[in-house]
Design goal:
By secondary structure, this protein is an alpha+beta fold. The chain contains 19 helices and 24 strands. Helices cover 34% and strands 24% of the residues.
């Protein structure tokens, strides 16, 4: 027995010595740890590193559509009793479930209307996030207007029709709030526009929508899932109540759940691309060689975008290569390098991003979002400087990003006026502008210093409020068919006028109407803009890196690209 064991041991030792001597690529005797065996097999070829994206794909980056049926109340005799239908039955059952007595009788009055709801939950949404809710009357409804209505609390779900029956899934959001009809904010005066609208930020997400890394079918297995988790956690982490933890949590042998680092909160698609660009296994020499190759790729406009993502995935070791990129003569190369540096929180990115935000519409969204992702003081000061831009998109875009990153920022902190809207006044050196939101939240931002309406004027704010200005005084009157008319006196200052309308029971719709009327009647000399936010998906014109969207003073429409396709274009998204 001892002799056999001695022979076996000798043979085993000989095999191990031989393996070490010739540099075996696979073990003759497999490890007891299956994870170690899997890792040993990764990158077994000499074609360079494999990446997370070779084994898996980030999943959950599409919008989720949800629907609901609800009742709008407080209508001014413009509602109707809905005809018999599946949505009506769903609504009545929901009202009974809430303990509402005689729901059919309530729904049959002229002060209420049944409506259909739709909303979109974006990828990465967290429980408690607010979303817009679209409202419309169903086909066949006799409701004539939803103006100034209030959506009663409603549940929103994924819905599908199976045969003749309407089925709903789990509750994904709750909705409630004031209806702002399209006729007021969409520039469309029609009967149809009175019967549809939005509740700005009226939906509250009920469940987190995490993004996941889904393994390709050929890679399913616990070792692969664990490997991906370790690779991601070596590069990314988050904080939970002050405790640092990895961004990846392997859940099963088929997917890994991803937490989003704070700097990527508003650019999930970039986060996904960077995660997929993480190398699975790489020697120090291999990384050195790859950095050299990526440095060359970055300096070519044709490969700069992909190279910048891969360098960003490497992390701070890639900063020298990216710093070379921002010295390039090519604007696209400079921008790609600066954007990657921004997500590494490198201050050198700031001047290039500021130039891009103010001067190139195709890069504006990316540049402002990247500046907002940075935590250093230089980036925040640059965003505040951009509040003085003459480009409405750049100006309001900088305000929006500052507000996203810190709602208590002294430059963007607003005041609630009643429960109707949030009002902001931003002191700037640019031409005056009133900016109105018709998505996300009821908000008015006045860019300028103590801006006022120019008297004399007589303006309507909805159907029941009249605002009349003479000299330094303004009289706001609310008319009523059932009670005595009420009025207050104030000053022509825009904030004072808005506060006066709210005190008399005016709605956000009434205030928006006043601002539009003031612009049309010449009572406000500046611009009045709606949702002047930078847009994704614009083309970058290589030969036109200049400020191509500055509207002339007094122009109340955002500038657009000139549509000249003679120059070489690159899809920048």
């Amino acid at each position: 027995m001892n002799h056999r064991f001695t022979v076996f041991a000798a043979v085993t030792n000989l095999m191990l010595v031989t393996c070490v001597a010739i540099g075996c690529k696979s073990s003759v005797i497999r490890s007891q740890n299956p994870d170690a065996d899997f890792i040993a097999d990764v990158n077994s070829d000499d074609d360079g590193p494999k990446y997370v994206g070779d084994m898996a794909r980030v999943w959950g980056l599409s919008d989720m559509q949800i629907e609901g049926v609800a009742m709008v109340a407080q209508l001014e005799n413009t509602g109707s009793d809905p005809p018999q239908s599946d949505p009506r039955d769903i609504l009545l059952n929901d009202m009974r479930r809430r303990g509402i007595r005689s729901p059919g009788q309530i729904l049959g009055t002229k002060s209420t209307a049944m409506v259909l709801l739709k909303a979109t939950i974006p990828p990465g949404a967290l429980k408690g996030d607010r979303i817009d809710v679209a409202v419309r009357t169903p086909p066949g409804s006799e409701t004539t207007s939803l103006r100034n209505g209030w959506l009663m609390q409603a549940r929103m779900q994924e819905m599908a029709r199976l045969g003749a029956e309407l089925r709903s899934g789990r509750v994904l959001a709750h909705a409630e709030g004031a209806v702002i009809v399209d006729a007021m904010t969409g520039g469309e005066e029609s009967d149809a526009a009175e019967k549809r609208g939005l509740i700005l930020g009226g939906g509250i997400v009920a469940k987190d929508r995490p993004i996941t890394l889904v393994l390709r079918s050929e890679n399913h297995g616990v070792p692969a899932s664990r490997l991906l988790g370790r690779v991601i956690n070596d590069r990314f982490h988050t904080y939970d109540r002050g405790v640092k933890q990895g961004a990846a949590t392997p859940k099963r042998d088929t997917y890994v759940e991803l937490a989003v680092q704070s700097q990527y909160r508003h650019n999930l698609f970039r986060y996904a691309r960077v995660v997929e660009a993480l190398a699975l296994r790489e020697t120090e020499r291999g990384r050195y060689e790859r950095l050299a190759n990526l440095r060359e790729d970055l300096l070519s406009a044709d490969t700069a975008k992909k190279a910048a993502i891969q360098l960003e995935a490497i992390g701070h070791d890639a900063a020298p290569a990216l710093l070379d990129g921002i010295e390039s003569d090519d604007p696209l190369v400079r921008f790609c390098a600066a954007e990657a540096l921004a997500y590494l929180n490198h201050e050198a990115a700031v001047p290039v991003l500021v130039q891009s935000a103010d001067g190139e519409s195709a890069m504006r969204w990316h540049a402002l979002t990247a500046l907002g992702a940075m935590s250093n003081l230089s980036a925040k000061e640059s965003l505040r400087d951009l509040l003085n831009s003459e480009s409405a998109e750049t100006q309001y875009g900088a305000f929006h990003v500052l507000r996203q990153s810190n709602r208590h920022d002294v430059y963007t902190k607003g005041d609630s006026i009643g429960d109707v809207l949030v009002f902001h006044e931003v002191r700037t050196t640019s031409n005056p502008m009133i900016h109105i939101r018709k998505t996300e939240r009821p908000e008015i931002v006045v860019f300028g210093q103590n801006e006022s309406l120019q008297t004399p004027f007589t303006l309507s704010a909805g159907k029941r409020i009249l605002v009349k200005g003479e000299g330094s005084k303004v009289k706001i009157t609310r008319f009523s068919a059932k009670e005595d008319n009420t009025y207050i006196h104030t000053t022509p200052r825009i904030r004072d006028v808005i506060e006066g309308i709210v005190k008399l029971g005016g709605s956000y719709t009434d205030i928006v109407g006043l601002m539009v009327n003031a612009k049309e009647e010449g009572s406000f000399a500046g611009r009045v803009m709606f949702d002047a936010l930078p847009r994704l998906g614009r083309e970058y014109h290589k030969d036109e890196f200049e400020d191509d969207d500055l509207p002339p003073p007094g122009d109340d429409t955002p500038g657009e690209d000139d549509g000249d396709d003679d120059s070489e274009t690159l899809d920048f998204t």
